[in-house]
């Protein structure tokens, strides 16, 4: 039975076998590896992962039609979690650190990534993420300070993760063919990063700044702090700068100062 992709779930099935092999090889899968695949679709990537003989494969798939197809195709070779990925507690799936693959639905890709980054669990549950994004989103994740794409997504991503571009993927590699190109990114956890008591504070601080990205930073500082001049002096900020001019490290420090006020 041929399954039609659901537009409402942002489905685009990867069909190019050469690209699939290249994506799987990025993870350097070993016999001791445990894998988590997000949105397996019809199972083309899953099959290629199985060929590497990993210890275990877990799949999160929301679409019940696809779950049935995956059960038939792989029998008991994979463990399927029929849930919305945004509701799953990944750190409870397995005691092993997981290599995570995902052809993420375009409509919720940033929500998924943000959820994983802002997970305040003290134990890192993943070995790395190998994730496909709409190229425009990937460009925002990779963006450097002072560039037009720089913003909340790159600041959040680089806080606890190293981010590396792997390669672009042409729309012809998918069915149905999307109107945009895709980019594969690899994320690995940082051992050292600026500690925050609640990662939601970094989300909030960056939202305040980048909601007014054309304004000078004096305005968001006034919104966040009763005594903004003290923060300006302490962090040696130039209030004539705009949000895209501040490095990620400055945002981590501002979030830290914001947290001190919440105690």
Query: Main sheet: which strands, in order across?
Result: 4-3-2-5-6-9-7
Overall geometry comes to: elongated
Largest sheet: 7 strands, mixed
CATH architecture of the largest domain: 3-Layer(aba) Sandwich
Please name the fourth-level CATH homologous superfamily of the largest domain. Answer: Vaccinia Virus protein VP39
- Let me know the average pLDDT: 91
Computed CA radius of gyration, to the nearest angstrom: 20 Å
Structural class: alpha/beta
Defining traits:
single chain, 263 residues, alpha/beta, Rossmann fold, Helicase, Ruva Protein, domain 3, 2 domains, seven-stranded mixed β-sheet, two-stranded antiparallel sheet, 10 helices, elongated
Task: Provide an overview of this structure.
- The protein is α/β, with parallel strands linked by helices.
- The protein folds into two domains: 7-189, 3-Layer(aba) Sandwich (Rossmann fold); 200-262, Helicase, Ruva Protein, domain 3 (Orthogonal Bundle), CATH 1.10.8.
- 36% of the residues lie in helices and 19% in strands.
- It is built from ten helices and nine strands.
- The protein has helices at 17-26, 44-50, 64-74, 109-117, 135-142, 152-160, 200-210, 218-224, 228-235, 248-262, and strands at residues 13-14, 34-38, 56-60, 79-81, 98-103, 126-134, 161-169, 174-175, 182-189.
- A seven-stranded mixed beta sheet has the order 4-3-2-5-6-9-7. A two-stranded antiparallel ribbon has the order 1-8.
- Helix 4 (109-117) links the parallel strand 5 and strand 6.
- It starts with 12 loop residues before the first strand and ends with a helix.
């Amino acid at each position: 039975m041929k399954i039609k992709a659901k537009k409402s779930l942002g489905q685009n099935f990867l069909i190019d076998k050469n690209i699939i092999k290249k994506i799987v090889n990025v993870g350097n899968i070993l016999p001791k590896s445990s894998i988590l695949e997000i949105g397996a679709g019809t199972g083309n990537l899953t099959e290629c992962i199985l060929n590497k003989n990993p210890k275990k494969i877990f799949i999160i798939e929301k679409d019940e039609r696809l779950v049935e197809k995956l059960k038939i195709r792989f029998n008991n070779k994979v463990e399927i979690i029929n849930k919305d990925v945004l509701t799953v507690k990944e750190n409870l799936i397995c005691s092993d650190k997981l290599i995570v693959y995902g052809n993420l639905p375009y409509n919720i890709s940033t929500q998924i990534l943000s959820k994983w980054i802002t997970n305040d669990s003290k134990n890192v549950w993943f070995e790395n993420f190998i994730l496909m994004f709409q190229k425009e989103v990937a460009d925002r994740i990779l963006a450097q300070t002072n560039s037009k794409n720089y913003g909340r997504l790159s600041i959040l991503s680089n806080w606890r993760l190293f981010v590396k571009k792997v390669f672009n993927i042409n729309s012809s590699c998918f069915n149905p063919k999307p109107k945009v190109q895709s980019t594969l990114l690899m994320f690995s956890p940082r051992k050292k990063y600026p500690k925050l008591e609640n990662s939601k504070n970094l989300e909030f601080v960056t939202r305040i700044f980048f909601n007014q990205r054309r304004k000078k930073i004096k305005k968001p500082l006034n919104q966040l702090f009763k005594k903004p001049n003290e923060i300006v002096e302490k962090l040696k900020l130039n209030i004539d700068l705009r949000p895209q001019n501040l490095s990620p490290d400055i945002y981590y420090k501002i979030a830290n100062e914001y947290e001190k006020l919440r105690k």
